[in-house]
Automatic annotation (TrEMBL):
This is UPF0125 protein PSUM_10480. It comes from the Bacteria. InterPro entries: Mopterin_synth/thiamin_S_b, RnfH, RnfH_sf. Pfam families: Ub-RnfH. HAMAP family: UPF0125_RnfH (MF_00460). PANTHER family: UPF0125 PROTEIN RATB (PTHR37483:SF1). Gene3D superfamilies: RnfH-like. Belongs to the UPF0125 (RnfH) family.
Length: 104
């Protein structure tokens, strides 16, 4: 019997480039297995697809080893943040307050 295939997308954005791949996988494939099948690690050898955090349409997947993909899913591979967004906003606000105080 022929397995039903579904179409998904896998996307990764590095600092200098991004890549979106369309992948056909058998129905019931897990998120992690779909990542490995995508070949994304060939384009980005620094990726450890067995450990990296991932999400589907912006929602983090807690257990990608057991969550099956669905037709049309876009799996997003996340990279570590270079700076904490809260800290960046705090520093920007402090700098703006300092500039405003100087101009008064």
């Amino acid at each position: 019997m022929v397995e039903a295939m579904i179409e998904i997308e896998v996307v990764y954005t590095a600092v200098d480039r991004q890549l979106l791949l369309s992948v056909s996988v058998p129905a019931g494939t897990t998120v992690r297995a779909a990542l490995l099948k995508s070949g994304m690690h060939q384009a980005f050898p620094e990726l450890d697809l067995s450990q990296c955090p991932v999400g589907i349409f912006g929602k983090v997947i807690a257990d990608p080893d057991s969550r099956p993909v669905q037709s049309g899913d876009r799996i997003e591979i996340y990279r570590p943040l270079l700076a904490d967004p809260k800290e960046v906003r705090r520093l920007r606000a402090a700098k703006a307050a300092e500039a405003k105080a100087r101009n008064q």
